[in-house]
Amino acid sequence: MRGRALVVVIALLAAGTVGAAGVQYSPGNAVEMPAAIVTDGPAWGTTALSKVTIGSWEFVPISSQVTYSFSYSPTSIYRTNASGDAWFEAPFHLQSGALITQFEVQFCDLSATLEFDSFFMVHTMSTGNRAVTNLVSSAPPAATPGCVVQTATLAQPVTVDNNDNFYTVEINLGGTSDVRIGAVKVGYKLQVSPAPATATFTDVSTGYWAFRHIEALAASGITTGCGGGNYCPEATVTRAEVAVFLAKALGLHWAP
Length: 256
Prior knowledge:
3 helices; single chain; 5-stranded antiparallel sheet; 7-stranded antiparallel sheet; Jelly Rolls; 2 domains; mainly beta; elongated
C-alpha cells in the first residue's frame, strides 16, 4: 500500500451530559443511576473525553469475612456486616497509551459516623509496588452528602502501560448499608504515540512536520510506505487507498 501524509477526520455526533461534582438526586425516586453516570458516548481523536464504567457488581471485598448485598434504588453495593476489612476493589481495562484524566464516582453516604473513601491504584507487576491517588471522599465522618456523583480530576494524568501495570479503583464502604458504591466512570483521552528516535522511511526525516504521525501509522500497520523504503509524503491519495487506510485503522470486520 502506498503511503503519504494522510489526514483522515472521522466525526461522530453524540448527545450526552457531564456530571458536575456533588450532583444530588433522591434515592426514593430513582430506579437507576442518574444521567451524569449513564449518558455518554464513544469519543474519537485526541481531544474528546471517553469513559469506561466500573459497575457496582464489579467491586469485591478484599477480606473473605465481609458479607454484602445490593440495592436497586439506586443500583449499588453495601456491606451487611462489620467483620473483616472495609475495603472493596475493582479492576478496569484500557488500551495502552490511553491518558487517564478523571474519575466520576457515584456513592451514597447517609451515616454520621462512617465515611466513604475512594482511591485510584496503579499496580506494577515487576516490582510489586503500587501508586495510590485519592479520588473522592465524604470526610469528615459526620458529613452525610446523601447519594451523589462527584468528579475527581487528576493533577497528573496517567498514561496506561499494560506491559507492566494493571489498574484498579479501591473504595471503603464502612460497615452499614448507609455507605454504598454505585458506579465509577473512568475518563480518558486517546494519544498519538511518541515519535521514535530514528526514521522508518528514507524520505521522512525526524524533523519532518508529520514525522510523529507517519511513524504512528507505520507502527500500527496501517501503512508500509510506497515502496523502496519510502513513504512518498507529498503524493496524492486515491479513494481505494483511503479505503485501505480506514479499514486497517478501524479494524473493520463483519461475519461472513
